[in-house]
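User: Structure please.
Assistant: Input sequence and predicted structure:
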Amino acid sequence: MLVNIASFPERLMKRFEHLLLVSLGILALSPSAPAQSGRVKDAPTTVTTGENKPSEEKTDLNDSRTAAQLFEVADTYTQKKFAEFEKRKMPYDQRLEEKIKQEQRDLAGRNATILAARNIAGQDVYYLGLLYNLAKNFDAALETMRRFLAENQSATGEPAQNARAIIVIQAAKKGALPEADKRLAEYAQNQPQVADDRYVLENLLVSGYFRSKDYEHALPHAQELWNAARLAVKKKGSSARDSMLNEAATLLSEADLKLQKKADAIAVVQTLREMALRLPSGNLYKLSMRRLLQIDPTIYPFKLSDALSEAAGPPEIRVDDWIDQKPTKLADLHGQVVLLDFWAPWCGPCRVTFPRLQKWHESYKDKGLVILGVTNFFGRAEGKELTRTQELAYLRTFKKTFRLPYGFAVADSEDNDRNYAVGSIPMTFLIDRRGVLRFISTGSSDEESAALGKMIKNLISEAAPVGAPAR
């Protein structure tokens, strides 16, 4: 299996395998660890991990296990330990996690000593490099992988790619950019590859060349970083996806700016904004707008996206209770302009937008505009705990108090927030008559409001698609 090097000191990405995670010193205790860590951080740590702990063992230079076996036992050490803890339903404990990780490093170091004492060649040198890397002896890992590739110039597949990746990481850390660049070029020309790994390797080169102010060499790597990001994010959660795409676009646009290519920099960020609409992601849209203004504070950032015929519609919203709105689906609203307003009763800026929403509803309700106020059950309001029935009654009263004439869509989960990547509210998604998301408003300012009002008017004026219900 190809080694995943998708983590380094500044970042943690979901791992495909974990052979190179030690390059960064990050390893999750278990899949449930992040969710549990806040609840059990004070859990007791006096847990026995078993007899003959690796850190207490002596190195047996007469050990007869093969190089592959020596690596395998060290590589799977944490996995087996954590599986044991999961089976025993032990709570997550950060100190225990660090203890197990240290035991793995110690074990890898001892096994590397055993292997290094032999007269090795070929694949055994490769496994020695992996053991050094797992033990966080990075200088030795670098030298050993250099030796492996030098002695095995016809090496192909995973061993060669993993060796190149380790060299790129460690050479880049040392500032040996020509060597890192050369090995990355070899990595790019061979298979197998993992998009996450390519992203990290390109990022290291971009960062290195930025530090040396060599923007000519940084630019092609920034372009490859951007390409890798778009491939790597396909199976990621919205938060990791948006962070990766934004970082790649920011670095590429910055490289363009350093080389006096402002138009190219703006084009990259505009592409990012279009991606945010297609995903959809309100958070990424907001980040792209912010970056656009960083590049050119005088630019008008609000733009109605073109109505691409091949664009997929936004995800259906999950609704557990409707208030003053007949149950419906977005698919049923084709032929109308739909405004999804993500809000919450406790949100002050959301209340600022109410008069504008009222005005737009009255102005365009007979011309095809449908406004849906999308919110969640929070279990409390006005400082009081509420049952679901009580919260529904509260929302109905709230709606009347603020004279909101459009319907509410209420969900008992955060599915809508996740599906639309809503990181802040108010946030508004404007969908045209063909069911295509064309604009996102990410705040309550007068400028945002004026832009949203203009976009609504533009979409209302567009002709309904053939076969859509008449309005």
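The radius of gyration is 28 Å.
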